[in-house]
Inverse folding.
């Protein structure tokens, strides 16, 4: 981990510990600067009442210049939400994690964006290419060249 990455993640973690997190988002673990886990619950009326999902953030040495790899944790019997931009292996098709990533974004901003994406969902369904994608998907979702074309999900 580079000094810049470690310094930035240290600052973000300090802010989380001092200021807390938005309602419905909780830090599960941030034991190092390589992997962090958060739970996300959609508050209010939604397609996911009472459901809590776990997000896994994986940081490389280029963070925050490079986006973190973010996916829903589907280990140990956990499931990813049924959403048109979320694959059953936990990968998330969201431009903020790819072409629209900016170093000014934070881990908390990503959590809030994903929480908002779930809150605005109108249907519980997988992406149309879920089965094909999951069969051949790389382990790291950042290695996928998603096409961002549908904001109506």
């Amino acid at each position: 981990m580079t000094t810049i990455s470690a310094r930035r993640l240290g600052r973000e973690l300090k802010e989380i510990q001092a200021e807390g997190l938005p309602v419905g988002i909780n830090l599960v673990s941030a034991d190092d600067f390589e992997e962090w886990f958060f739970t996300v619950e959609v508050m209010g009326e939604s397609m996911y009442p009472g459901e809590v999902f776990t997000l896994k953030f994986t940081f490389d040495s280029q963070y925050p210049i490079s986006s973190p790899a973010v996916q829903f944790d589907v280990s140990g019997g956990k499931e990813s939400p049924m959403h048109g931009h979320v694959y059953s292996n936990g990968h998330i098709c969201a431009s903020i994690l790819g072409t629209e990533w900016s170093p000014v974004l934070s881990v908390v901003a990503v959590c809030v964006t994903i929480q908002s994406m779930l809150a605005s969902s109108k249907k519980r369904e997988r992406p149309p290419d879920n089965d094909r994608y999951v069969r051949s998907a790389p382990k790291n979702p950042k290695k996928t060249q998603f096409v961002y074309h549908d904001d109506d999900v």
The chain has a mean pLDDT of 93. The chain is about 25% helix and 15% strand. The helical segments are 3-19, 107-119, 130-136. Residues 87 and 133 are 8 Å apart (CA to CA).
